[in-house]
């Protein structure tokens, strides 16, 4: 099927027998252009006050047509949304329709929510985000792991959801390029001495390569694999995770760390966004309490699921369970650090920082992010509690 546009997307919905979703009337379609990869449209029936979002995957990224990506990434996205709908239904958009051949998903319109990254930049607090994200992480990860799934079923599923092209993108952009001089890397000019230090740090690179190896080989659970604050739509009462097209069976710590690492980036960027010293301290205080709370909820929900639904004959040890959680915390620190480095000196930057126009101010905030990331990597093997990890954020320093 061709790329949809504002005209054809409406015909598409009718052709697929989905008119009832919107009801009779004049429908209005508008493109949603925040993303880079897929085509998204909001189709509204203003008279009935109803709307849906249509997401279509093309064989390439729409904003960068030379960047080829297989369309079946939408099957991966759909599979994750389906599992999440079973175990954490309040944390994902409802899927109304999926056609794997057309590579189209029709889903709930979350237009009342805002991209969490953009809101954090302005100092917006989300009192329920920790509860919601902690639960999403615990449920989606536990119920797709060997703790819960029968061994054969898990292996068959992991063999179905392979996603090699998108995984290779992350292997390169997250775990390789930011740690060597690479033509794709970009960073603010004043960071040059700091970036040279990072390129020269073989011990740091060795830690990251161990993470990369684990990322490539440890099929622990079906992970989202791009769970940054731009994949979270949030409001005062609801928090939803979108865009799991990068998903595969990988290490749980990657999802945990990507989310927590992006909260740490928001903390660092607030160095420049804060309207006053008072608000800087107050918002950061909230951010770190949400950071810690996310982990506590994750742990509580993960252990509750273990208690209720684990295959206890397969994993009969309380000590193992304790170690499992501690290992996840340490993994989260490592993967979170890799995510921070790549957002600061790799190819894919984030608006937390590129929205800071003054180069000196931006680089100062970025140096704080790099300092936190280095602390996370260096200390990751020693961490015992989430407070140890948030403590390293607090100890972070502007290095310029
Ligand atoms: N169900 C939804 N309701 C409302 N808005 C949505 C919905 N899903 C996505 N969006 C909006 O569209 C943007 C892009 O969506 P999404 O991230 O799924 O697409 P993408 O093309 O894969 O983006 P990316 O380049 O980040 O990979 C989101 O950041 C969000 O603003
Ligand atoms: Mg995407």
Write a brief structural summary:
This protein is of the alpha+beta class. It has helices spanning 8-15, 19-22, 73-87, 116-121, 129-142, 151-160, 164-175, 192-199, 202-217, 252-273, 277-309, 318-345, 351-354, 359-379, 386-394; strands at residues 28-32, 39-45, 50-56, 60-61, 64-68, 95-99, 104-108, 114-115, 221-223, 232-234, 239-241, 248-250.
Walk me through this protein's architecture.
The chain has 400 residues and is an alpha+beta fold. It folds into 2 domains: 8-108, Phosphorylase Kinase, domain 1, CATH 3.30.200; 114-394, Alpha-Beta Complex (Aminoglycoside 3'-phosphotransferase, Chain: A, domain 2), CATH 3.90.1200.10. The chain is 52% helix and 12% strand. The protein has helices at 8-15, 19-22, 73-87, 116-121, 129-142, 151-160, 164-175, 192-199, 202-217, 252-273, 277-309, 318-345, 351-354, 359-379, 386-394, and strands at 28-32, 39-45, 50-56, 60-61, 64-68, 95-99, 104-108, 114-115, 221-223, 232-234, 239-241, 248-250. Strands 1-2-3-7-6 form a 5-stranded antiparallel beta sheet, covered by helices on one side. A 3-stranded antiparallel beta sheet has the order 8-10-11. Strands 4-5 form a two-stranded antiparallel ribbon. The longest helix is centred in the C-terminal third of the chain and has 33 residues, at 277-309. The protein starts with 7 loop residues before the first helix and ends in a 6-residue tail after the last helix. Adenosine-5'-triphosphate is lined by residues 32, 34-38, 40, 53, 55, 93, 107-111, 115, 230, 242-243, 245.
């Amino acid at each position: 099927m061709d790329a949809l546009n504002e005209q054809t997307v409406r015909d598409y919905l009718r052709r697929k027998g989905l008119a009832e979703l919107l009801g009779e009337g004049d429908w209005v379609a508008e493109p949603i252009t925040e993303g880079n990869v897929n085509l998204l449209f909001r189709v509204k029936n203003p008279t009935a006050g109803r709307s849906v979002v249509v997401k279509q995957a093309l064989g390439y990224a729409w904003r960068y047509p030379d960047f080829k990506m297989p369309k079946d990434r939408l099957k991966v996205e759909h599979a994750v949304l389906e599992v999440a709908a079973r175990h954490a239904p309040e944390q994902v958009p409802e899927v109304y329709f999926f056609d794997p051949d057309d590579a189209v998903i029709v889903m709930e319109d979350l237009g009342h929510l805002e991209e969490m990254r953009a809101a954090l930049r302005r100092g917006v607090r989300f009192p329920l985000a920790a509860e919601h994200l902690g639960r999403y992480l615990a449920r989606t990860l536990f119920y797709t792991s060997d703790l819960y799934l029968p061994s054969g079923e898990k292996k068959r599923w992991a063999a179905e959801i392979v996603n090699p092209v998108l995984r290779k993108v992350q292997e390169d952009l997250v775990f390789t390029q930011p740690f060597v001089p690479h033509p794709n890397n970009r960073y603010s000019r004043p960071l040059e001495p700091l970036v040279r230090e990072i390129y020269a740090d073989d011990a740091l690179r060795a830690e990251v390569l161990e993470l990369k190896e684990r990322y490539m080989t440890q099929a622990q659970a079906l992970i989202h694999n791009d769970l940054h604050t731009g994949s979270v739509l949030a409001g005062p009462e609801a928090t939803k995770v979108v865009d799991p097209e990068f998903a595969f069976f990988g290490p749980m710590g990657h999802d945990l760390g990507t989310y927590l690492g992006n909260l740490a980036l928001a903390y660092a960027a607030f160095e420049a966004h804060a309207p006053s010293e008072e608000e800087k301290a107050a918002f950061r205080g909230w951010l770190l309490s949400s950071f810690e709370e996310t982990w506590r909820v994750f742990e509580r929900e993960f252990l509750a699921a273990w208690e209720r639904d684990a295959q206890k004959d397969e994993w009969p040890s309380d000590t193992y369970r304790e170690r499992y959680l501690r290992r996840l915390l340490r993994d989260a620190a490592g993967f979170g650090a890799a995510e921070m480095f790549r957002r600061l000196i790799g190819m894919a930057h984030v608006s937390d920082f590129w929205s800071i126009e003054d180069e000196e101010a931006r680089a100062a905030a970025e140096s704080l992010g790099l300092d936190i990331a280095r602390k996370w990597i260096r200390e990751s093997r020693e961490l015992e509690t989430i407070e140890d990890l948030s403590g390293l954020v607090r100890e972070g320093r502007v290095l310029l």
